Structure prediction request, 559 residues.
Amino acid sequence: MAQDTTVPKLDFEYWLDKAMKWGQGTTLESQKDVCLHLPQLQEFLHQVYETLKHMDSIVAIQQFPLIGQLLGRLCWNPFVIGYDESQKTLMWCLCCLYSSEPQNPVELKANSWIRSLLCHLLSSSKWESNEADTSTFISTLGYTSADYYYHLVKNLVFSLVAELRGNQFNGLNMQGRVSGSRVNAVSLFCLPLITLPDITPLLETLLLYQGGASKEILSSEFLEAVNDAFLKKKISLPESAVFSLWLRHLPSLEKATLHLLDQLVSIQLNSLEEVACVIKDSLLLQAASHPAIFRIVNEIFKNALLETDGTPEVMTVIQVFTQLFLQAYQNENKQHKFPLKAYFPYHHQPLVTALLRHPFELPTTHWSQHLKHISDMLKALVEDTNITSLADLFEIWFLVARFGEWLDIAAEQLLKAAVEPDALLWLLAFYYCPQNENQQRTQTMVEAQAVYNHLMMLFSCTVLSVKDLEAAVHSITDIKQCCNQHLVTHLFTNFLLFSSGGHMIAQEFIYYITEATDTSKEVCSLLVRTAYRINHSGEENQRTVKLLNELLQKLTLKV
Prediction:
């Protein structure tokens, strides 16, 4: 029997033949042969695991077609699973074969089979070689079988958590004694068990584990699986564990951010309160208190805006996220605050400070002055000869765009307050037309000024007709050919909301102007933002709120 103990590397046929002969180790001869080969078998299993962990599960099964049969038989041999670390190595091998995203019934069935084997291995103990003895032992402890295995899993989790957290003895932290490969193996072991509630303490400990290594020691498959389960609400994790996950695995943070955008863009945008609730529930807002996460989320938002060509739904989400972030930042304990420059490190700080000022921190009578200050700084920056690239210009534009509340207020102040219009019109022209190639922004200013002048002549009229406003439209040669339909539509919409006579013709004219400029979605977003600001300003303006709701209902059906 000693003649065949030298085994070729990864010789699955040899070990499958052995496993079939051994069965479950019921005869004395098979038990002796198992014991004789256990060290070599353990080495073989370790080599298998080292090979599998670098392979995709489908590729592994294709390359080693006998692996399923072999592992399945070994898992039921009490001598094999009772020897040293063979049981753990079998678990690791099974985890490598588990498909995180099964594509067909065969893979689903394979996953189910792997889970059953893992449950069997988790519940295995040295007494299980005799089922009757096991039952007697469990009964003596006062447990049912279900209770016993439940406590066994909890104890296993507790043991692994204790090992990872390290022993604290006389102030000495023993965490460093746990090897990186051991931590990586534990993370792989968790893969098929992530959604089990009893595993949560182990998931949390792994995510918070800091081993001091320069490279990530947790497997990327584990981090991706935990993130997916969290986003699908299959598991619940403490905030600290989620933040640590996103800090140590950027693909998970990107997926979480895009998941939030998809959620919000796919729902009907009826109120910003609803948007705010979804954002807060995602934990991304809370995580963004860390400057590194905030800046990465900022980049993802920026790319999403570029890829969607500035769709109003995405822009609204970004603006609401920024508002909520600032509220949370202002409420933070000053001792634990990062400086604002940590969140906006590459921008003109006086402009950042001015934009960060919440409108309701100032008296409404000071709004136009503050907006002029923002416009003057922005104009000086944009017209600076150092701003030579489109990328630099986009960075400035995106900073301003994030604080859309000030832009909406600028458009309102033009109509509601006695202001010098040039600075506020320039601010809006820059937002809607940041590039001045071929004098586009200059032309936008001319068109906006013409519409604004005509609207101001009509602003105090208590009785208006649609034809009166059509004349304002015709003050531009052709609304469909004007440099920026969005800015013009923004001015008209505010006129309907805040002028004396605009309410009477609002529903009829809003249909006309959005049809002429193809801006239904943009106007919907503007109305939702305006309703949110009025509701949170304490203004008693029931008539405007009622009109906002009526217009939203009309446009929502149109969109």
